[in-house]
Amino acid sequence: MKKIVFFALFSVLFTSCISTKDLTYLQPNSTKSSDSIKVSQEVSKPYRIQTSDILSISIKALDQKLVDMFSVSQVPGQTQTSPQALFFNGYTVNDHGNIRVPILGEVNVLGFTEDEVRQKIEKQLLEEYFKEEANIFVTVKLAGLRYTINGEIGSPGINTIFQDRVTIMEAIANSGDIPITGNRKDVQIIRKLAHGFETYSIDLTDAGAMNSPHFYIQPNDYIIIKPLKQKSWGTGVTGMQSVATIITAISLITTLLVLSKTL
To answer: Across the chain, which distance is largest between two alpha carbons, in Å?
Structure first.
C-alpha cells in the first residue's frame, strides 16, 4: 500500500511542475554552432490588402485647399489616430475590394500593397485633376494593425497596434504576455484569406519560429493561446503548488486509512 501511495505522489509531482523549456521564448537549437537565423522571403513579403481592411489616405499639394475636397471630414471630438477616428475617417475595403474616395469614386485596392495603392491614386489624380507642378504627395497606410487574442493571455480581447509590421511576439507582449499556464509551443493563428479562413500553429519556444511565414501577424488575425495540461489537471504548476497538492493528498489518504481501520 505504501508503494502505491509513494508512486501516486511521485507521479503527481513529476507531471505537475512546468519545465522552463516550456516557458522560455525562442530557445536556440543546441545542435547548431550559430544562433543566427535567416529570415525567409515569405516572411518579408509586403502585406496585400484584403476586404474589411481600413486604410488611412492623406493627399497633400502645394496648394492644400485644392486637395481638401479629396479628404474625408474628421468626426468632431476624436483624435486623428484613435481607433474610433480611424474607423469613421478611414477608407474601409468593401466586399468587392473597393474603397470610396471623395471625387475619385470607387478605387479597387484588393490584392494591392500600400505602395501600389499610393501609386494608383497619384496616377489618377495627375491624369484627371492635377498637373505635375502641383507636387501631389499621397500617403497610404493601414489604419493600425488590428488583431484579436484569446485564451491563456494576460489581457484577452481586440487590440490595435500602430505599426507597419507586427510580430506575434509583439502582439502577445502588447496583450499582457502568456501566463505560466499558457502553451507557448502550440499558439494558433486563424487568418482570413481571400478564399476563406486558414489555421496555423507556431512554436514560440523555438528560435526557428522567427523564420516562420506566420511570425508576422496580419490585420484581423485571431490568435488563440491554449492552456497547458497542468491547468486542467489542477495539480499545481509550480514546485510549491505541487508540494501543497501532495500534502493534501497525503492527508486525504491518511484520513481514509484511519477511517477504514476504525470501521
So the answer is: 102
**The pLDDT of residue 150 is above 60:** yes
Radius of gyration of the chain (CA): 27
CB 189 within 8 A of CB 200: yes
Work out whether strand 145-151 and strand 221-225 pair parallel, antiparallel, or are unpaired: parallel
CB of 35 closer than 8 Å to CB of 207: yes
pLDDT digits (tens, 9 = 90+) for 216-233: 999 999 999 999 987 666
Burial (CB count within 10 angstroms: exposed 0-12, middle 13-18, buried 19+), residue 196 = exposed
SS3 59: strand
Choose the weakest-confidence range: 58-62, 102-106, 107-111, 237-241: 237-241
Q: Is 177 left (phi over 0), alpha (psi -120 to 50) or beta?
A: left
